[in-house]
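User:
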Amino acid sequence: MSEPRSYRVSWRPAAPFGPLTASAVFGALCWAWRDLFGAGALADLLSSFSDGEPAFRLSEPAPFQGARNPVRFLPAPVLPGPDLARYSHDHALALSASRRWHRLGGIQWISEDLLGTLAHGTVSRHRILEETTFAGARSREVAEVRCVAFREWWMTRDEFLRLPVDAAGRRWAPWQAFEQRRFGGRGCSAGGFRAGGWTAHGGGVHLRLACGEAALERLEPAFSYLGRTGIGRRRSTGWGRFEALSIDPAEVLSPVSGAVAWMTLTRAIPTPEEASALAASERSSYALLRYEGRLGEARPGDDASKAPVWCLQAGSILERPIEGRCPVVRRDGDVEVVQYGVAINVPVAGTVIGPAAVAS
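Assistant: Predicted structure:
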């Protein structure tokens, strides 16, 4: 297998989307693999994930906003709370009672530029948190601060001012294009549907892909196939289609010197050994999510439940990088259903997590 390289996969929605995750993209790629290359090729692909040498790795899909010089977002890091010991007694009490730290807990996305500043440790996380202001939809100007938290989005001040403004003066948030929307009056076939900020103002979806050249030769036609057929359980009605697909070499972040921690960009499912090491870690900062649900192609009334699994929230910061795994969540005779959970990790400076952190 050739040495994996890092790529950025991006596209613009051509129709409304349902919920979009790395697991949903992986499942759609498996359907495309079977249709394009045959059932044997799909079996070989899935065996690579069970044997511990995945043919490719995917990050969680994330939004970007803007046609030129776009603002790209990634899952927000799971940062620990403020280290109150570094402040005076009165200041520590004020910070502990402040809603600022609680509001930052609702952040889901962080811009690539701001994450790069955090990851390289050029500015401490405490300074960045202190220099963040909270803006509303009608905030045309913001104070001379370093960062802006806008709903669930966290970015630099310059990036916030680049977000488009509608006719009423409200600044458009980069809402997920995969949020379910109603079709416009002309219907999807005529090109009219309401998809909020992403489609109306030049937004789209991007994710990170790590793979070798052999896998890339099949991933390119597989993604193109999905652009025509759609992703998700409602693709038969025209949902989930996309256009302007591009797959370009790109690193997630520039190299971080002296990195002592790693941030996962995927809802990774740790192996039992990785879970034990994580539980014993005193500096990792992470959150756990429970995956459960039904098969997307099941008919109403069928028993299509999948076994629940626990995964790390994308953005979790770990003392050691993890590989993750794709466990079997359902068996029907000889047919196995797997849950995508391998990780893409990016190195970050130790100042991101500090001397001690906690799990949630």
